[in-house]
Every structure is written in C-alpha cells, then in structure tokens.
Amino acid sequence: MALPDEELGISYLIVGAGVFGVSTAFHLKRSKPWATVVLVDRYLYPNPSAASFDLNKIIRADYHDIFYMKLALQAMEAWNSDPLYKPFYHETGILFAENVGKGAVFLDNYRRLGQETQAESLDVDEVRQRFPCFQHANWTGVTRAYYNPRSGWGEAVPALGALLQAAIDIGVVYEPTTVAKVCLETAALTGQLLPRCVGIETAEGRVLRADHVILCTGAATAKLLADSAPNDPTLHVGDRLVAAAALSCKVRVDPEKWPLYRDAPVFANLMSHTSGEAIPLTPEGGFIKVNHELSFTHMIYHSASNTHFSSPPDSVKHSCWAEDVPQVLKEEAMKVLRGTYGPYMEDFQPESYRMCWDVVTKNQGWIISPHDACENLYVAAGGSFHAWKFLPILGEYVVAMLDGTLDEESVNRWSWYSIADSAGACESYAPRRDLKDILQTEKVKARV
C-alpha cells in the first residue's frame, strides 16, 4: 500500500518494525480502522540487525516480578490459542537451574495470582532422569531446579512476519526507509511550553508529517534523539535507555543425534559457571541456539551533542549472524554449551554467532510513554532482552497509552520519568562491560 497523499496526512507514524512497532501498528489499525497508520523501518522485513531477527525466542510466564508474570500469562493465552500466533509456538517446557530461590518465587507468584500451574521444583537427580541430554550438565552449586512444562519457544522471524502481514492486510502502510531524525517545531515557534514533533525526515531528505510519532527504535533510540535535537538534552534518553548486546550462537546437531535432544525443554542455567540458556532443537534444520547472559554496551562519543551513550556499531558483523566475532565471546558461548550438555558437546558444530542488540532500562522494565519533553512524540522501547514473548499484546498497551487509558501501575512503571520502584524484570542481562573492553582483551591475548 502506498503512502497517503500529504494533504490527507498520517495519523500515526511508527518508527521501527520490531516487536513493539509491529504489534503497535497492528493493534492501532485494528482499534482505529479510520486512522492512517504508517510503519517505517530501514529495511524491507526482516531487518537483519533488529533484536527480533533471530532463530527463536523463549516464551514463558515465569517471572519473579508478578507484574510481568500477569502480562506474560496474558500473552501465553494468545500463543496457545490465537491462530495468528499458535503455529509459531513450541511448548517444550522450560527448566531453570539456580540456587537463589527463583523457582520458589515463581511458584508463590502463581499462587498469589490464583493461577493453576503444572510447574514444580525438582532435585538434580530427578532432572537427570527425566532429561537424559542434561545428565552431564554442570550442576555445581545447584540446590533445586524449577520446571514448567507450559513454557517453550517461538519462531522469531516467522511469527513477527505473520503479524506484520496481518497489519498490512488491514491497512497499515509499511515504508522501508531510513529515518535520519524526527522533525521538531520549537516551543518558541509553536507558542507552547514544549517543542512539538511533526514527523520524521528520511536519509534522502523526504519529510513525512504525522499527528503522532511513536519511536519503537530499540537500541537506535539514543542516537536518533541526539541527532534530532543535539542541543536540547531534555529530549535525549540520558541513562533511562542503554543499548546493549548479548551473544547468541547457532549450533547444528548431527541428524543421528536428534532423538536425544528433540524432546528437551529450554534450559536456563543461571549459575555463574554457565550463565546462559539453550533453546532446544528446531524441527527444521536441526539447530540448537544458546545465549550467553553477560551483555555489553558500545559507548560512543556523539560530537554534535557533546555526549556519550551506548549505540550499536555500524559494522554488520557486530549485529547480524556471522562467523567473525571476538574469540572471547565464542569461548563464552562454548561455556554455555559445556554447562548445558557436558561431554555431549562433541555432537555440536557452532555455525554462526550474533550480537543481539536491544535496549535496557535500569530495572529491565519498558518505556511505553509520551516523551515528557516533547508534544506528539511517544516512546515504546526498553525490551531489555525479554519483550519478544509479549508480541501478541504489546501493541494493546501502546494504544492504551496513546488513548490515555493505561492503568495507574502501568503508567508509573512505563513512564518516561518512571517512578516505579521494582525489582529487575530480567536482571541477569543487565550490561556490565563494554565491547571495547572485549576487543581490547582480544588484542592482549593475541600478543601473548
């Protein structure tokens, strides 16, 4: 579908076709069929550098923050029953190995919500008996394991692509173009207290004007706002959104070994000797994916604004599936493999690696909010490495934010100036190092 005539205008312009952007576009158009909804992304779908461009993603309702557990249970209903999402959901179960009582908190949260669950606490011998492929995992320090058979994983690119097509089918306009900046009218010009966002300017210099501009730009948010208003720090993200990456590794399994791994659950070994997750065998291709939890930033100096912030590197090899990543990161991926499968590692051949760039907040919650320093500008971001599973429902909450109907707790948690005081929703993925440090370590090792 072509862009609307300029005279007709754009009601809602969404920048970024990841989980926040696509879900928002779909729910906006479905709830407001008369509105003109335009979704802009720098690539024709899929964007190979987006966080959502992945082999698969974990889908679970097991959260120690009961707020996100309630939301995840709502999303799980869609994954289990909605024909738009159900074909892409694989209910393999999920297993957590840890020693800080997360499983007990999960079970207590289900009880507090009055939610029936098949989840249970297991000792290590029970796990080994049920799941032979984890028999030789690194169980050092593990006191109990938590197992929930009603969790699993989703096919990342196909699921998001199906929702994007559904959005286009009901009238959303998808426009592949690079956004250079958001267009602002100063407060002096508008006669208001705040500047006003009136649209976006593309890299080719084309201006798309809109009544509402919604940034679903993930790890690119800090740079986009700094480029748009370099001399106005009130518009910048500050420390509320930090771009970070975690390493994923795609591993091929020999076909004759598939029976050993086919019925395995997702395994999250949270102990420091492993610090990662393994997502089980894909039905097609015979891949296992592992994630290493220790994420990292990429701090840059932005000369126009004279500020420092984290932003993904320009190099494709630092955001897309590739073989060329620092050896330090490859070794960390192998650590996850060793901690998950032990001596069975000889069955695996790592094929490619990926630095998955997302944007995290201080408590790994999200921002779904008007930008408090600019009229007509809104932000839906802060996935913090756990938002993908909420694909079916994220847009509902963005629409509620736009309509001013969000409940008070959600407003407080997701505001641009969040006043929520909550525990981390996904604290194991909080960044604790920088890519430059990793590359420097690589250079030092090379000289030894």
Protein architecture, described:
The chain is α+β, with helices and mostly antiparallel strands and 448 residues long. The protein has two domains: 10-51 and 158-239 and 362-423, FAD/NAD(P)-binding domain; 63-153 and 242-360, D-Amino Acid Oxidase, Chain A, domain 2. Helices cover 27% and strands 26% of the residues. The protein contains twelve helices and 21 strands. It has helices spanning 19-31, 66-81, 102-112, 124-130, 156-169, 187-190, 221-228, 258-261, 327-341, 394-403, 408-414, 435-447, and strands at 10-15, 37-41, 56-59, 89-90, 94-98, 120-122, 144-148, 152-155, 173-176, 179-185, 196-202, 207-215, 242-253, 266-269, 276-279, 287-292, 299-302, 307-310, 348-360, 367-370, 377-381. The strands form four sheets. Strands 1, 2, 9, 10, 11, 12, 20 and 21 form an eight-stranded mixed β-sheet that branches. A hairpin with a 4-residue loop joins strand 17 and strand 18 (307-310). Helix 1 (19-31) crosses helix 10 (394-403). The longest helix is centred in the first third of the chain and has 16 residues, at 66-81. The protein is globular. The mean pLDDT is 91. It comes from Microthyrium microscopicum. GO terms for molecular function: flavin adenine dinucleotide binding; saccharopine oxidase activity; sarcosine oxidase activity. Its cofactor is FAD. Keywords: FAD, Flavoprotein, Oxidoreductase. This is Sarcosine oxidase.
